[in-house]
Amino acid sequence: PQTKPQVQKPQVEKRKQIDNHQNHAIATYACIEYIICIIYLVLQGVGDGIQPLLSRYYGEKNTTVLQSTRKMAYGFALLLAFIGCIFMYLGRWHIGQLFGASYQVNIQTGKAMPIFLLSIPFVAITRVATASFYATEKHVLSYILTFVEPVFMFVLMLILPLLYPEQIMIWWSTTLARIASALLAIVLQKKRS
Question: Which sign, positive or negative, has the C-alpha torsion 159, 160, 161, 167?
Answer without folding.
Answer: negative
